[in-house]
Specification:
It contains six helices and five strands, in the order βαβαβαβαβαα. It is α/β, with parallel strands linked by helices and 159 residues long. It has a five-stranded parallel β-sheet, sandwiched between helices. Its cofactor is Mg(2+). Its EC number is 2.7.7.3. Keywords: ATP-binding, Coenzyme A biosynthesis, Cytoplasm, Magnesium, Nucleotide-binding, Nucleotidyltransferase, Transferase.
Length: 159
């Protein structure tokens, strides 16, 4: 079985994430969507909410496992889960410049490869930060996020 890990904080999950995960699911037998938490970061949604949104949004895809990643090295997590690769989406050359050193370190630490998938052009501008900012200011993000994510963002605005 070819198992890969698609890691991220997914705060919130957006259509660019979904597109990369769906493409990974078409290439590999199992995709573990590893929802991470960095305790030095402030999140809009709790880990539980991010896991729920991922479950709702990815329910129709086969071969998807969604779980919290916990603390520790991604390379070690991949080794523990029997994953042969990490899948990352790239939007720009700055993403590439950021991701390549991490990919090299992960390969050196545990032999896990990183597979980069270029984002679809319609999602090149998307980031979770931008989604949070636009939504927080009352903008319509319905074209950029799954319905369940949009509902939760709207609930936050009314609180």
């Amino acid at each position: 079985m070819r198992r890969v890990v698609c890691p991220g904080s997914f705060d919130p999950l957006h259509n660019g994430h979904l597109e990369v995960i769906a493409r990974a699911a078409s290439l590999f037998d199992e995709v573990i969507v590893a929802v991470s938490t960095n305790y030095s970061k402030k999140y809009l949604f709790s880990l539980e909410q991010r896991l729920e949104m991922a479950q709702e949004s990815l329910a129709a895809l086969r071969g998807i496992v969604i779980e919290p990643m916990g603390q520790g090295l991604l390379a070690e997590y991949c080794h523990q889960r029997g994953a042969s690769a990490i899948v990352k989406g790239l939007r720009s050359s700055s993403d590439f410049d950021y991701e390549v050193p991490m990919a090299t370190m992960n390969r050196q630490l545990s032999g896990v490869e990183t597979v980069f998938l270029a984002a679809e052009s319609r999602y090149l501008h998307l980031s979770s930060t931008m989604i949070k900012e636009v939504s927080g200011l009352g903008g319509d993000v319905s074209d950029y996020v799954p319905r369940g994510v949009q509902r939760r963002l709207a609930e936050l605005r009314t609180q």
